[in-house]
Amino acid sequence: MKRPGFLWGAHYASIDKGAHKASTDGIAGRTKDAAVPTGDRYIMMFAAEDCITFAHSAPRALHGTLPEPDKKMLALRINERMNVMMEATRVEGKAMKNFKEGMIAAPCINLGSFNYPTDGEEEMMGWYAQRRMHAMSLMEGCVRTRKMCSVAGWAKHAIVYEFEAQEACKKYFFTREDLNPEQQPWSDKVVKRVMHAPGSSNLAIRLFPPVPQ
Q1: What topology is assigned to 6-208 in CATH?
Q2: N or C: which end of the chain has fewer CB within 10 A?
Q3: What is the DSSP secondary-structure string of 132-160?
Q4: Residue ranges of E strands in the chain
Q5: In a 10 Å sphere around its CB, with 0-12 CB exposed, 13-18 middle and 19+ buried, how is residue 110 labelled?
Q6: Buried/exposed 81-106: b ≥16 CB within 10 Å, e otherwise
Q7: Domain segments of the chain: what residues?
């Protein structure tokens, strides 16, 4: 965080899949490509002023300059994967008015990272803009939602749903009532073509920085 261009960092622990059920479980696909690392129990996020910041401070290059204790800690990771992404668009939810931590990701996130068939990406873009992002802007407990596009890494797309607490996510997101039920066939069509990364989507709680009490 002391390096030029970085804005914030956050570390999350994923919640066991048995503790929640996503609305897309059993509908969206998940890659079976053995070359894609499967680690997903912890999520580390850094934000920068520009994607090029990560080109000047690439994680693998930085790791080589770390003290030995830090290198040993990083060596404990299993099947880690990495993406560099840019924020394509963002909406704020109803809980934003109570959020005092600026642009850092909220205490609870639901992170989906995925690929999508090229011939359908225009429709997917329309679905996020007209349906999902609009619904999130009206949702209780939601701080913000960020749609991300990849610069480097397996997943070409990501969506980050941010909530003020895990309980809010479970109450409003996983049991949400659709605001426009007549559009459900459109959602089903889009979701069925998604190819998620291993473990995606991830419901996760923030470990660092500590959540203000």
Answers
A1: Alpha-Beta Plaits (3.30.70)
A2: C
A3: IHHHHHT-TTEEEEEEEEEEESS-SEEEE
A4: 6-14, 29-30, 42-48, 84-92, 108-115, 142-152, 157-163, 195-196, 202-208
A5: buried
A6: bebbbeeeeebebbbeeebeeeebbb
A7: 6-208
Vertex 36: Cα angle to 30 and 38 (nearest 5): 75
Q: What is the residue-level pLDDT of the chain in tens, covering all 213 positions?
A: 888 899 999 999 999 876 555 545 557 899 999 999 999 999 999 999 999 998 887 777 788 888 999 999 999 999 999 999 999 999 999 999 999 999 999 999 999 999 999 999 999 999 999 999 999 999 999 999 999 999 999 999 999 999 999 999 999 998 765 667 788 899 999 999 999 999 999 999 999 999 988
How high is the pLDDT of residue 60? 76
Running DSSP on this structure, what letter comes out for residue 88?
E
Which of 196, 191, 193, 190 lies closest to 31, judged by CA?
Answer: 196
Tokens 């709680």 sit on residue = 205
Is residue 94 within 8 Å of residue 106, measured between CB atoms?
A: no
Name the residue among 81, 86, 83, 75 with its Cα closest to residue 33: 81
Burial of 155 (0-12, 13-18, 19+ CB in 10 A): buried
pTM summary value: 0.92
At 202, list the tokens: 């991830």
CA dihedral 55→46→78→38, nearest 10 degrees, is -90
